[in-house]
Amino acid sequence: MTSSPRRHAEISGAGFAGLTAAVALAQLGWSVRVHERGQKLREEGAGIVLWQNSLTVLDALGTHDELMAGSMTPPFYETRMQNEIVSDESLDGLRWRTMTRPFLHSVLLKAARAAGVEIIAGSEVASANEAGVIRLADGTELEADLVVGADGVGSNVRDSLGIEYTRERSRDGISRFLVSRHKAELQAIEPDTEWDNVIDFWNFEPRVLRVLYTPANDKELYLALMAPAADEDGTRVPIDLDLWTSIHPQLAPALEEVAHKEGKHYGYQTTRVESWRRGRVALVGDSAHAMCPALAQGANCAMVNAYTLAHAVSDAPASELPDALIDWERLERPYTDRTQDRSQYYADTRSMSEGNQFVGESVEAAWYDPTDPHRHDAIRAH
Ligand code: FAD
Ligand code: 3HM
């Protein structure tokens, strides 16, 4: 008896999308190589919120215990307007965790290595073609059964295939920082506040300057400072400490640490692509569906789509892989499209400031279960 040859994937990008696809494919028996343009395998960003949809993926990849040990679930997701509490959400049994980005990246990297994935740092993918061939920046050509373009919002894989996109910019933007918790100092300023909560400090008067306070673990605090892109002082990094503490005096100890940090202000934007695939090439993550962070779903959707991609191509015979990608996009894309649209809408209207941010349609993606075999029954029936 002869066994069929092991299928091979070449992946561009070792971010959350690329690593998730790599682990899932390798665990399904593929040989997998990941190319990362950066010289180092690490994630530079600050903090992140993961919801049940991506936590389900991380469980399925076998990372549950490690992930739980380095992350936390705050007691409540609190929303304040002009420092008045407008809601404390317990999220009705929906799982969610906060953590740092470097930590999440390290968990995925370890899982990838354990699954036998080959990861090459300092390797830039210049282009890909429909037949499943990638060309590296040094001219090397590599052939695969499946190419995954997980190379972020500026994707070479997407652009070299001529996949068109539109980009919509919002008026607001954000600067993100990781600092120490400062819990005792914060408690001394406001003893009645639960400083383990996520606290979304909205402020519109005298100007729009919002701080999203997110404990990431026992020691680290993720602070996201939002201001309209047109506000030169509000978007400056290093931050204008006097300005931010004048609006949010109760956060002074943490803001003082932020003031010593470099960083950059990121303008909110949504990128909508014409297609998630071409021939043997699939796009996942920000290359396919970069979104505003209002619902904190960009990386969650990236991990879910990377996982479902791995299963869709593994379930199909090798010769039918391009058709499997067509089906994958048709079935998986609608909820991501809705999530992108809603994130853009919330970023544009700031209506989440009214409280109870994570209810109804805003948690559709968070409740999505990519491991449920019946999740597409409604779409298939049409
Ligand atoms: P990236 O993280 O961009 O990774 C792409 C990787 O590919 C990088 O390592 C890059 O170096 C590499 N690369 C690029 N080009 C090449 C090439 N040509 N060859 C080889 N390698 C290449 N999402 C959430 O789910 N929860 C949140 O709380 C959240 N908060 C956010 C807050 C802000 C302010 C922003 C901007 C986004 C937030 N997101 C959040 C979204 C999330 O950060 C992204 O959706 C996610 O990081 C995308 O992952 P990715 O792997 O697709 O892309
Ligand atoms: C985690 C997170 N949540 C919401 C926003 C927002 O409303 O812009 C940004 C974030 O990083």
Description:
With 382 residues, the chain is an alpha/beta fold. The protein is built from 13 helices and 18 strands. It has helices at 16-27, 52-60, 64-69, 101-114, 156-160, 183-189, 241-247, 252-258, 286-289, 298-315, 321-349, 364-367, 377-380; strands at residues 8-12, 31-36, 47-51, 77-81, 84-89, 96-100, 118-121, 125-129, 133-136, 141-143, 146-149, 165-180, 198-202, 210-215, 220-228, 266-273, 277-278, 281-283. The strands form 4 sheets. Strands 5-4-13-14-15-12-16 form a 7-stranded mixed β-sheet. The model has no long low-confidence stretch (mean pLDDT 96). Bound molecules: flavin-adenine dinucleotide and 5-hydroxy-6-methylpyridine-3-carboxylic acid (3HM). 5-hydroxy-6-methylpyridine-3-carboxylic acid (3HM) binds at residues 49, 174, 212, 224, 226, 293-294, 296.
Bound molecules: flavin-adenine dinucleotide, 5-hydroxy-6-methylpyridine-3-carboxylic acid
Relative strand content:
25-35%
Give a short account of the largest sheet: 7 strands, mixed
Q: Tell me, briefly, the overall form.
A: globular
Low-confidence stretches: none
Structural class: alpha/beta
Query: What portion of residues is helical?
Result: 25-40%
For the terminal residues, how far apart are their CA atoms? 41 Å
Oligomer: single chain
- Let me know the number of strands: 18
The largest beta-sheet arranges its strands as 5-4-13-14-15-12-16
Any idea what the radius of gyration is? 21 Å
Name the average pLDDT: 96
Tally of helical segments = 13
